[in-house]
Structures are given as C-alpha cells and as structure tokens.
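ping. complex inputs:
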Amino acid sequence: MIEIVTAGALTTVQDRGRYGCMRWGVGSAGAMDGVALAIGNILLGNAEHRAAIEVQVFPFRVRFSSESAFAITGADCAAHLDGLALMPWSVHTARAGQELHLGTPQGGAVRTSRAYVCLPGGVDVPVVLHSRSTQLRGAFGGLEGRPLRQGDTLCAGTASSADKPGLLGLVPPDVALPLRCDGLAAVRVLPAAEYDKYTATSQAAFWRNAWKITPQSDRYGYRLSGDEPLKAVAPMEMRSHGIVPGVIQVPPDGQPIVQMRDAQPTGGYPKVGTVIEADLWRLGQAPIGSRIRFVETTWDAALDALDELQAWLADVGRQVGLHRNTRSAA
Amino acid sequence: MTTDAPSFSVLGTTAALFEAPDAVMSLETQQRIWSLARETEKWPEVLEAVPGMNNLMLTFARAPRDIQGLRDRLLEAWGTVPPLALAGRVIELPVTYGGEGGPHMHDVIAHTGMSIDDVVELHCSPVYPVYALGSHPGYCYLGGMDPRIATPRRKVPVLRIPGGAVSIGGFQTGVSASAGPSGWNTIGSTDMAFFDPARDVPALLQPGDSIRFRVEKVIR
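pong. complex structure:
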C-alpha cells in the first residue's frame, strides 16, 4: 500500500482508457503518454491494461507502507527514494516506510512533462465501465472519480510471479523513436473533413508555423497559439459529431485546440486535422509553453507508424523478458 | 458540413466519420443513422458505432489498411438501411429561463432580435427527440429545435458551465448533465440526474426517448 504525501493538481489514476462507452457520452480518458504507461507495465510484468498514477504537477511524494517494487516511466523527474537518486525507466524496490519523491522534469534533448508511477499488478481501484481510468467530467473511475490528494492510500493489484528485471537502462521512447521538425517536437497529422474549407494561406501556415501550447491546456485539450490564426473560406456551423483524442478543432478565433485524453466524445467546431494515434504520446509529454510542429502524413504512413510503435514496444517486452530470464539463471 | 452526397472522412487512424447528405437535419435521417449504427457495429474492424447528429462515427478495433474499401461498404450500407423507429419515453424537465442560470440568454436575444418571451415560447413548445448521446456522460443531443432561435456557438468556449444548463449551439439545443466546458449559449437551468455509472445502462435517456421543457420561471 502507498500513501500520497504531496500531490499537485490533476494527479490521477489512469489506464489505457475506457472504450465502448461513447454512445453514452463517455470519453476515453486514459494515460496522456500511453507508451510510458505500457513500458511501466512491461517492466513490472503486468498485463497491459493495468493502471498507474499519472503525475503532471511536481513535486509528488508517496510513502510505501510495505515493501514493494515500483517503476517510474515518462518524464525524467529526478526521482529519489529517501534521498537516493533513481534511474528512470527502471524497476526499483522500496522498503516499508520509504518515501519516493518526484521533482520537476529535467530538460533533456526533448522537454517532457508527465511521469508514471507504476506498481506490481497495477493500481488497484474498482473497474467502472470496463476501465480504471479517472473520468473527471463524470466523476467516476480512478479513486472516487477525482484527482489524488494528500492522505489518499492506494493498493497494488495482484502481482505476477515474474522476477523483476531490476536496472536495465532502457532507451526512452523519444530517443528510440525521435520526431523533430526544425528543432521542435513534431507530431504527424492526417487532414480532417474541413481541411479544404480553409484558405490556401492558412493551410500552408498550419504546416509551416510553430504552435505554442498555451497555459489553457490540460488533459481535456491543448489550446494552441500561433502567429497566423487559421481562416476559413466561409463561416461554418457544424452538426455535432463524434471526435477522438488527437482531433484538431478550430474555433472561430482561428487558434487550434487539440483534443486530448479527457476530450469530450463529440464536438462541433470545424476540424483541420487529427494527430495520428502513433504520435499522441509525444503530445502528451509536450509541456505548456513549448512549441510544436505539425507534419502532414498519409493513411498508409500513419498505419506504418502505429505498426512501428507496436513493434518497438514488443521489442522492449522481449528485452525485459530476456533480462528477467538471465537474472533468474544467474 | 452539409453537402449533396454523403461524406466520409477519417479522424486520424482512430476513427472514421460518416455524414448524411440532407440539407435539413431530420428525424427520418437520424432513424437511418441508428440503423446504420446497428449494422456497422457488427463489422470486425469496428470497435464502436457512435451516432451523432445525422452522422455516425466508427471507432476502430484495428484500423483497416484498405480505408477506401471501408468507405465503399459504408456508403453501400447507407443506400440500403431502412429507417429504425425507436419508441421511447417522454421526460418533462422544469426550466428556469434567463437570470444567473441563463447567462447567455441576452446573446440569443441579440442574435435573433426576439424578446425573451418569444425565445422561451419557441424553445419550450416542441417535444424534442433524443437523436444521440455525446459531449459528456449522459448528455443528450436533441432534434426539433425551431430554427428561428438558432444562435451560433460562442467564439471562445466557456471553461465551466454547471450541470443542468439548458443551452443552444447553432441549430441544436440540449441540457448539460454535469459541470464542464462548453461552446454553447446557456439560456436556462434545470435539475435532473442523467447518468449513473453503476447501472447496466448508465445513461437515463437513449436515442428514441424525448424531452419536453416546461417553463418553471422566466427571469428577465
């Protein structure tokens, strides 16, 4: 069991997300960086649907009330266990009474913003509508449907019997699968239904310009700001329709909003494009105040990117498994 | 967008969007959308078929390589599905129009050039069929609003409107089921629990049910 000692705003329990409930108005929620969560589960020998704690405001501190393995993935946030520096993307063991401290994410080649604290067997909160993810708007899922706060206690699920891989030195995903454009973090985008309704100048500006992630950005969506607001050829009044995380909407002020994991399942603003599924994790790690670029892609290339990501995760799984077997044999 | 032919587009590799062609939103078109949802949710590549307002989103269990093939099958199915008439309940909701609970009533008045009494009268007259659920847990998109009170969505979304907010967005109206952000114009408030995640069917209302707004009070 662990106890939250210090938690900033919107620290939540998240798994891969909640699917199959959009017909009731329920959005997917889920980890903003699904790749970091997946690696945390791989490191601990967990099933891929297990939940972790997503931390996006630092410092974050938890106390272990019993001995437990744990993994830290995602943003490199100077993790310490009772003052001892911990290697990121690795499994560690805490003794009863020890305190884990996550600090402000470090500047590396790529600035990142969200860390995942993963436990053996996952964070054990009730499954609501097929998922453990916190649904903030509906106030269910996660721990009582709300962000974590000081004094909350969480239990780990049933751990697998697999040996823990220990220190491994994984190559982080943004190093293994880099994507930059003119020195800025980039994400690939497929044009959406209303792309053609924007002026040629605005279409060019969308791809060419850097877009700043404004402070009005959160798990619901990133409100962007650019030098050239996007102009439609004529005003549009849309019928409400289904949308998914990654959809880039353009409200009348011309500054795009990218829907993120807590996005509503429907929307009505025109859509200029959608960040492809394979790159959503990159955006989930892009900090407020940073600038990003959109790179146009095609259907086939977007599916190739998804295959590449899944193949890389499978390879990480094999590496971790190999390491585990080597240790067992030693 | 409304066009002469049905439209098909993708939302990244996560989903595809089908939009019915009719220029005027109608219940008959929506009944065909419900029918198309029943048909397509059986397709192996489809995770969920989600009706919108005269449109349908298909989320993918696994995105198909042959996206044109999916498009062709969807358009073919649209040509053959019969309207699915769903018969449901009528729920009456008492509404306080205007005042603190309806902060954007003046925008609707300014846009339509009508008096508050005319807006209220036109808004509470119809029985609104639930076309689809969306936006947030338990929220119902309603058909049948009088186009004379249509008011464009707000230029910048409001960060938080309360649960029970009755609002107009373009040619649509609805009631928020919980507090959250919205780009619509809030003209009144009501009190009703629309969602309970502990129930097998967690949403109070389903497509085919209807809502009638009853004037509780008008604050001028």
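Chain A has five helices and 21 strands.
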